[in-house]
Amino acid sequence: MTQWTNSPILGDNSLHEREALAAEGWTVIQQHWIQTSNGNEVGLAIINVYCPRVDHERDDGKVYKMRFLALLQTRAEAFFQSESHVIVLGDQHLNHKKIDNCDPVLEDWGKTPSRMWMNQFLLEPGRHSDRIY
Asked: Is Lyase there in the keyword field (predicted)?
């Protein structure tokens, strides 16, 4: 389970909010040092997640999931800004593209908040290309 501690990596989220978010989702973070092809040692953060699913029985189900994803992004970006490579893996409880779903019948497929979040979260080709090996 996620052990949320007070850390600059966590951003401005309160301990109460972090504990509430950890009740239905979790992260396991590993930090490593790797050697690049040019011989430099750089950090590598591996963030394994189980994101909360949208619980339609909760009035705040979508908001709850988006708060979890926002905290995940805050953590990933903090590692990235500290010159670490970042890998996020695990179950995000979302289908990013139509091809990822067995029945993608929604007209506004890319308009759901979690898919829009994923689109902006992923590293775009050419962006930070000096950091891709």
From this structure: yes
